[in-house]
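Project channel, design review

CF: Before we commit to the Acetobacter fabarum constructs, I'd like one complete example in the thread so the newer folks can see what an input/output pair looks like. Taking LysR substrate-binding domain-containing protein.
RD: sounds good, go ahead.
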Amino acid sequence: MHDTNALYEYTRRCALGESGIVSIGIQSNVPPGRVSAFIEPYRILYPGISFIYRDVSKRDVISALFDGIVDLVIIALPLNESCAATLPLWSDRIVAVTPTNHPLASSVTTCWSDLREETFVFGNDDTGEDMSTLLKRKASIAGFLPTVCREEIISLRTIALVINGHGITLMPAGWLAFFPGTILEQVTVLEVRDGDGFSHLDYGIGWRDRNLSTVAHKILVFLGKQNLE
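CF: and here is what came back for LysR substrate-binding domain-containing protein:
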């Protein structure tokens, strides 16, 4: 009888979205700690919900969403898929990183047009793709064609190329916290402004209504309310 009651209670809580398992695909360039900052408050409210995470490239995480392997995805926006919906969660400012002896190193901020003569080095990963896409869009508005080198490394390592004089790079400001002081003291970090203010990269959560579970839907409602507060 006890087992039957426990099963009934578990089934009831699953139907209400208070118990169950949610699979979340995380794009590999999402900074560590950001996802748990949004999910942890919900997990505390509903300890009966378990989370399974998959950390993969943007292409693979979108495929997993459409194949029904994951319920939700945390990605850099936009998610250019007509059959999926998104909710913005946070933004990260984009900064330019130069050697300390760079002509612009004495500045705190710069603009895109001041970077027209630069060589930009990016990694061959999702962040490199995001930064390259943003640069080309901003450069087009500023009236120049940027020089871009995509290296066969992860984007976190491009700071070493900057230090060694191979060019400059762009990265989310949130990444700076993961570099030791001995690295940061060898570079200069510049805010890049344009007519819209500081450039930024948006992150959000994506889903498909057709395979959205009750639990996943309740999480989205919770996150939506958090955004409004």
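RD: helpful, thanks. Residues 188 and 215 are 45 Å apart (CA to CA).
CF: The helical segments are 2-15, 34-45, 58-66, 126-142, 158-163, 181-184, 214-228.
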